[in-house]
Fold this protein.
Amino acid sequence: MHTITVTINGAAEYLAVRSNMTLLQMLREELGLTGTKNGCEAGECGACTVLLDGEPVNACMVLAVESDGHQVITVEGLAEGDELAPLQESFIELNAVQCGFCTPGMLTSAHALLQRHPKPTEDEIEEAVLGNLCRCTGYVRIVDAIRDAAGSSASASGKGGAR
Amino acid sequence: MLARPGLPSFEYVQAANAAEVHSLMQQSGARLMMGGTDLFPQMREGVCEPETIVDVKHVPGMRDLSYDERLGLNIGAAVTMNQLVRHRDVQAHYPILAQAAHSVASYQLRNRATIGGNVCNASPCADTSPAVMVLEGVMVLQAKGAERNAPAADFVTGPGQTAIEPGEFLAAIRLPAPPAGAVGRYLKLGRSRLGDLSIVGVAVLGYPDPAAASGYRFRIALGSVAPIPLRAPAAEEILAANTPSEETFAAAAEEAMGVATPITDVRAGATYQKMMVRALTIRALRDVWAELAPGKGA
Ligand SMILES: Cc1cc2nc3c(=O)[nH]c(=O)nc-3n(C[C@H](O)[C@H](O)[C@H](O)COP(=O)(O)OP(=O)(O)OC[C@H]3O[C@@H](n4cnc5c(N)ncnc54)[C@H](O)[C@@H]3O)c2cc1C
Ligand code: FES
Ligand code: FES
């Protein structure tokens, strides 16, 4: 067992974890943060994507103990209280969600993208969500929603100028 | 759906320095780890069952990435694919390496996957291997109190096998300054356009060389089409001896196809792979030539 301290969605957590526990198991089974999904446990589907120190990683491919001393953001941490993030609003508005299984991973990947590139190009959007498989939507609406969120967050902060 | 069994049990230890790596490596059943993106799937499939996992990515220097005009590029073994893709000097002086690193898996995985893990796992389809080979990289192997350089050319000795001796670990990869005026291309064929293991990988580096009969030299390395990544020396000789032209490129690509010994597997047939070696070699040569000698045609 390892005793770790990790900041999850802004709050410090003290946990005892086994060496072979993945970050995905820790989030879902120890902390009940079941927004992060388990699709393949093989790094292939992206449903388990979370942000480790701001960068997306596949939580099924990271050991829980490796998060000691770091910051983790999950899909539960994107909204501000009851207020959904612009990205989440865009996903709802543009029907980018069907069964919803891929959505948490899509949102965390897209959130990190907008942090790196507030005005992403098509290529940058594609690169960001290429590791997130969706079996329902055909991706077009997801890409539209990300583009829409990039526009709305820029205009909301007043820095975007004319689109 | 039933829950997956997760990872088999093991003890995780983080090595703080090279001395700790060496003492932890002595334990029976110890296995080194950096991003774990090759290791964990192998453990889940029961291919390997380490008792102790030694995380070596925090050893000082393992994450360093630095460029010097004279010395070239020093890449710590635990430098991630995304670090390579983003680095200014890699983009400016070793774009072929940035292309190869960018072709690996997905953005998320590239935050974890390291170049050292890629070459040490020694899969024939490791995407950075052909690029490191045409850049004539050197593997820096760290034994207790001693360091040894192994040329990338014969680092991989078989599928999953490398020139690393017991008691050594990969500390860094050094790439010499590229030849003046060099242009490189890494072309990868996967089942999808991006983000899949390669079925064929072709790396070509070309540069002017007045000493060559053609005025140019080209280095070619192939991935995924033999038990180990390979250079294609006969193809390289044709290109040094003959003026670059469509005919020269076709003849060289034919030789490159000749060194490939792929096997039919679930992802592609052997004949298809051989033909794609030829096609991608020609394509890469054309691309490199167009940039090397703009307007000269071929
Ligand atoms: C979904 C998925 C997609 C992938 N797609 C690609 C792809 O497109 N192209 C590609 O090339 N690869 C791909 N891979 C494979 C893998 O991601 C890469 O090979 C990666 O670079 C491995 O690096 P790592 O740090 O994760 O290695 P690890 O898994 O940590 O280690 C790999 C091997 O090296 C050994 N090792 C680790 N550190 C050292 C050291 N310092 N010295 C000596 N030995 C050491 C380990 O014991 C292990 O055997 C994919 C993997 C997954 C899961
Ligand atoms: S569950 Fe982690 S990538 Fe699929
Ligand atoms: S909405 Fe069902 S997998 Fe994407």
The pocket of flavin-adenine dinucleotide (ligand 1) is lined by residues A 43-44; B 31-39, 41, 56, 77, 104-105, 109, 112-114, 116-118, 120-121, 125-127, 164, 169-170, 197 (CB under 6 Å). The domain at 86-150 of chain A is CATH 1.10.150.120 (DNA polymerase; domain 1). The radius of gyration of chain A is 16 Å.
